[in-house]
Design brief:
Blueprint (H helix, E strand, L loop, with lengths): L14 E3 L5 E5 L9 H14 L5 E2 L5 E7 L3 H10 L15 E2 L13 H12 L10 E4 L13 E11 L9 H5 L5 E4 L2 E4 L9 H5 L5 E12 L11 E2 L7 H18 L6 H8 L1 H9 L5
Parallel strand pairs: 5-6, 6-7
Antiparallel strand pairs: 1-2, 2-4, 3-4, 7-10, 8-9, 10-11
Bound molecules: iron/sulfur cluster (3 copies).
Amino acid sequence: METNGRRGQPKVPGVIRQRQKGFVTLRLRAVGGEFTADQVRAIASVAERYGKGGLHLTMRQGIEIHSVLRTESRAAVEELAMAGVTMGADGARVRIVTACPGRDTCRWGIVDTREIAGELDRRFFAREAPYKFKIGVTGCPNNCAGATGNDVGVMGAVVPAWDPSACNDCGVCLQTCPHHAILRDNETYSVDTGHCSQCGRCTVSCPQGAWTVVRRGVVLWIGGTMGKNPRLGTRLDRMIDSNEELLDLVERAFAWYCRNGRPKERFGQAIDRVGIQSALDEVLIPRPA
Ligand code: SF4
Ligand code: SF4
Ligand code: SF4
């Protein structure tokens, strides 16, 4: 059984021993970095009374309250819970799901990142794994949420199509496509799919609305990690159209990791040791029931 440092006491998730004897850090859970104003007031109040009055913003969009006396941490956790603030995860389990603002507010956003992050959090948060397991959701290939550096990264993607009847051959899309993936031949436009990142910028910036979205979904990156052994995630060659399908694929990726990963081995390192094809076969090809 894990403990917070006192023999015989069960581990409280998100309560992390500090280097200073007798003090702990409270790591708070924020799906996609979201807190309400009321929750922030409650967090500030707890930080003033139990900590040193300061807050720390984590790399994974959470908030930590540092330097809480271990003997007072349960009371602080209970006060936070009354305000609807729950604890984050630590150790060998699925961590808080991060997300950029996505389509809700960002003009480049392709998908509703908050909804996707919420569904992933409800399914996977705090599940035990060989080691820490991070999920990030980013609304488009601009990748502001760094999905490619997560064990599972979800990225919004579109398939664009050109409507010749709406196009006036102004050439704007040739300039705005960030990957020069739009081709013009004899007043006819097409997409070089080998270079298209599926960002959808053409569909937003064409003054005539001649580039339209024929498919909107997400793509998955698996095995990304930062830290000691950085590894860029491997992009799966499949467009995912629904949250149900997404959850299914992430479940299979997680199952492969839990079966193949060694203790303290990240998903990407397990992929490199066992072989990417093994992971792809499991994630992309469902096993017979
Ligand atoms: S990744 Fe895309 S949708 Fe998300 S904040 Fe960045 S530009 Fe906006
Ligand atoms: S920006 Fe739109 S109207 Fe202009 S060339 Fe491209 S598709 Fe045609
Ligand atoms: S989706 Fe993005 S990368 Fe693809 S053609 Fe349009 S602007 Fe270019």
